[in-house]
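Now for a specimen:

…
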Amino acid sequence: MNPTYAEVEQALLGRWPETRLEPSLDRINAMCRLMGDPQQAYPVIQLTGTNGKTSTGRMIDTLLRELGIRTGRFTSPHLLSMTERISLDGMPVSESLFVEAFADVAAYAQIVDDSQPHPLSFFEMMVAMAYAAFADAPVDVAVVEVGMGGTWDATNVADAQVAVITPVALDHTRYLGDRPELIAVEKAGIVKPGAHAVLAEQTPEVMDVLMRRAVDVGATVLREGAEFGVSSRVTAVGGQMIDLQGVGGRYTDIFLPLHGAHQAHNAAAALAAVEAFTGSNELDVDAVRQAFTVVTSPGRLEVMRRSPTVLLDAAHNPHGVEALVGAVQDAFSLSPLIGVIAVMADKEVDAMLRTLEPLLSEVVCTQNSDPRSMRAAELAELAGDVFGAERVSVAPRLDEAVERAVAMADAAEGYGDAIGSGGVLVTGSVVTVGEARVLLGGGPA
């Protein structure tokens, strides 16, 4: 008899957390061998980078499905439910299918646990479950997002036909290095011999690392700004209108219902990846337009309510916050804009706050349910140094913080003509946004 979904959740959470790394592919390789190497049963498009992986992966998934190709998609972390990490045909698997995937691999996991110096981690189990579920479906292609880094990430037991590297910046410096070019060495590990390497715009130092890897393994390189890119973009109601230069052709008059220049660049990378995967000189333009029209990216500058407007964004490092600030300034006119911020204690919090300061009128410092979350009072001290104490308040419970910020934006006291045009931005981590999404009535991601 299979366990319940709640029992599976507890069994997975009882393993090494995904934030604890032991750089080795030995365990996941052993696991996959026992399962018959399911990751070899279908082609793989793999994504890494500091920011933009999830949005780009969802775009690739949507484009492929519009072309009639059956997809599986693996993503992390989740916003609300573990089931979001494993998708078939664009939808998270059901709880019953998630349980079945766990039951299918549990016996193999016990063998690996008993034979290795360290047991399989939470993330390694999720990867094994996803690869097995994709083989069972079966899918025509798996779109796989790296958890952290690249070379030693558990997803890298697959040899991707197309490797997508979104912009590389500083994050997870404790594990990946304190300079972007060092982090790029780890990211470059997903580029395998004979693959297509789709490279988003990078700093020269990072691009040099990625190009050296591509040359070393004989990969075909597709670079944003050379082989593909964004030809034009104009802010529109509910998103933006973009023209994209693909590898094989030009695609015009595309409505993308996501905000920010970074999402247009993600769309260009997604298009290039699909062109590379299909080997098509030019995709059907109408199919491309239709796919981008329906693409979603929950928790990425997502509008959860109006009057006042409440935005959610999972930016959790300075590079992501910089893109967030630019997107808000580009797409919204909200004054005052009240921030609700909860961050993980191991992040570059000061740099994130300084990037947010020009955008936010006031901030409510809070915390999420993760044990790694910085305490609200400690965050408020840091925020006070950046914003000034008069612009900072504390509400340790996230629900109270959101409620307070909504009331502040709704009242817009002291802003004269701005009354009625206030807004709230909830940001700082994926966990924060996932929990706020539940509070605000959001459905499955």
